[in-house]
Amino acid sequence: MTASNFSNTISDPSTIRVGLVGTGYVAKSRAQTLYSDQRSHLVAVTGHSPETTAAFCQEFNAQLVPNWLELVQRDDLDLIIISTINRDHGAIAKAALENDKHVVVEYPLCLDPQQGQELIALASRRQKLLHVEHLELLGGLHNAIKAALEAIGTVFYARYSTINPQRPASDRWTYQNSLFGFPLVGALSRLHRLTDLFGAVASVNAQSQFWNVDSDRDRYRSCWCQTQLHFTCGTIGEVVYGKGETFWESENLFTLYGEAGTLIFTPKGGQLLQGDIPQPIEVGSRSGLFVRDTQMVLDHLFDGTPLYVSNADSLYTLKVADAARQSAETGETVILTQS
């Protein structure tokens, strides 16, 4: 879909009128970018807290809207940006597309792969942009890995572990299954790094454990997930994800074992191991990625420049993450059919 497909749906060809769902850190970064770019006008905002939303709207000179359904139904908006709890992504995106709006949504697109497939088809029928943000693909870590991968030859095993101790555990929605989703669905970027590097997955085997708050099975104070992905290319990928009070030391480690060497990445940088002396690998900054994503969306809408991630790839990773959920719940390996 190119810029010419969009021109007849925007009242002022020089300005995109935007509605924003959410008032958190990501939403604020989006709003700052929209506010400073002459191609966009942040018209209206809706959020969970009326007081927080009112302050947000005052800061960015936007109108406060009571709820997201009223927001997506407005005739004075061209684009809806969804930066709210994961559970509501799919419903808001569907309503926005049905009301002839372009849509940008933070990952995951939704919590159910079938709904994700329907949303992508709906966007195509309506000839509307549907963009799922995947900042991990823009960041310095991922680009450094891709640039160095050839040096270690065929990769037979990759392990990505992120452990985040929090004491006390957060009382936010990210510690609630119904709002965040299964941890590897909510934290989809962990799996997307691997599917972007190694392609199609043949089978998934996963385990998970939750330390719930009292007798509430929905809220937890800690979670741990581990999944093993068998890629059709022969690589085995392992992802470990944990957060909360049960953990006492943080870990952010990505290790790739190849037939000609090993790559090790931490937040401080990377190393290539092929002998006695490790070779340092520079890792670019993570700052400014939401700004970059927002600007790329505007570039795409106005000039037809390509985006950095496809909906098909995002949906495929969501299917892999849901397979991990199924495996963790049943204790059985899930075989993925290749379409």
Write the SSE topology:
Blueprint lengths: L2 H4 L9 E6 L3 H12 L3 E7 L3 H11 L2 E2 L3 H5 L6 E4 L6 H10 L3 E5 L6 H14 L3 E4 L6 H9 L6 E11 L11 H4 L2 H4 L2 H10 L2 E13 L2 E16 L4 E9 L6 E8 L2 E6 L2 E5 L5 E3 L7 H15 L7 H20 L3 E2 L4
Parallel strand pairs: 1-2, 1-4, 2-3, 4-5, 5-6, 7-10
Antiparallel strand pairs: 7-11, 8-9, 8-15, 9-10, 11-12, 12-13, 13-14
Helix pairs in contact: 2-11, 5-6, 6-12, 10-12
Question: What distinguishing features does this structure have?
Answer:
single chain; disordered N terminus; 35% helix; 339 residues; alpha/beta; globular; 9-stranded mixed β-sheet
Structure report:
The chain is an alpha/beta fold and 339 residues long. The protein has 12 helices and 15 strands. It has helices at 3-6, 25-36, 50-60, 68-72, 89-98, 113-126, 140-148, 177-180, 183-186, 189-198, 289-303, 311-330; strands spanning 16-21, 40-46, 63-64, 79-82, 102-106, 130-133, 155-165, 201-213, 216-231, 236-244, 251-258, 261-266, 269-273, 279-281, 334-335. It has a 9-stranded mixed beta sheet, covered by helices on one side. It has a 6-stranded parallel beta sheet with strand order 3-2-1-4-5-6, sandwiched between helices. A hairpin with a 2-residue loop joins strand 11 (251-258) and strand 12. Helix 6 (113-126) packs antiparallel against helix 12. The longest helix has 20 residues, at 311-330. The chain is globular and about 60 Å long. The model is unreliable at 1-9 (pLDDT under 50).
